[in-house]
């Protein structure tokens, strides 16, 4: 079916007090697995391409984006395409022509005033192009090999009053909030601050997004959705599933050289991981 927009999926989810799963993709196998997993659950899904993934693909956005668009157009469920954690203005400006309906502009590394100014400029440009735009306030840590922030470190949590002002002044369509998760977690041990999430949901009139969800246990994810999270970002969980399955296959078949053999095993492991996450959010 034709691509849908991230904005319509998230707006509908927020109104229903549910959440849409958004999966970061790096290879065509990731794309196919996310769609197959979503189809198995009869659920809409968001495919996310991060700036780091573009860097991995020799800095070229279009090859993976074109593949994702083609796969989405043949999907049996609604699929949206989202450009994730973008710091490059040049990459931001490639989004509309590449098939993306939404962008997460990442100024969270900056001091508050600089983050607001950069995000406001990105929002003004994105809205003129018809793009839905997400931002982040508060630092999760875990990106690009940095350690997760201590729960009590300055800026580790999103302040509700600051978030209210940030959303009003920047005009963003959604806000990723720091409530206890961290990027790139390989164990599901995160404990979320549900009281803070409740206060953020009460202070803001835009959908809330949870980053670093691979490290969040099922019960915590369910509670987060009940508390106001409308978009759940998952990346590392897919890589764990794929890598583990390929390791096991190659250990059992050391003679294997046909990449289709082990990539298919890795892809199917990701299909199951996608379905499991969607099942928790349903």
- The largest sheet has its strands arranged as 1-2-3-4-5-6-7-8
For the record, the count of structural domains works out to: 1
Secondary-structure arrangement, i.e. CATH architecture: Alpha-Beta Barrel
Number of DSSP strand runs: 8
Residue share in β-strands: 5-15%
CATH domain fold name: TIM Barrel
> How helix-rich are the residues, as a percent range?
40-55%
Low-confidence residue ranges? 148-152
| CATH class membership | Alpha Beta
Major sheet: size, sense and barrel closure? Answer: 8 strands, parallel, barrel
Distinct helical segment count: 11
Rg on CA atoms, Å = 18 Å
**What is the general shape?**
globular
Structural class: alpha/beta
What is the CATH superfamily classification? Aldolase class I
Please tell me the overall pLDDT.
93
Helix/strand order:
HEHEHHEHEHEHEHEHEHH
C-alpha end-to-end distance: 22 Å
Protein traits:
282 residues; alpha/beta; TIM Barrel; eight-stranded parallel barrel; 11 helices; 8 strands; 47% helix; globular
Structure, described:
This protein is of the alpha/beta class and 282 residues long. The protein has a single domain (6-281), classed as TIM Barrel (Alpha-Beta Barrel). It contains eleven helices and eight strands. The chain has an eight-stranded parallel barrel with strand order 1-2-3-4-5-6-7-8, surrounded by nine helices. β1 (20-24), α2 and β2 (45-50) form a beta-alpha-beta unit. α2 (28-41) packs across α11 (259-281), α7 (160-170) runs parallel beside α8 (194-203) and α10 (236-252) runs antiparallel to α11 (259-281). Keywords: Metal-binding, Zinc. Zn(2+) 1 binds at residues 85, 183, 211. It comes from Streptomyces caeruleatus.
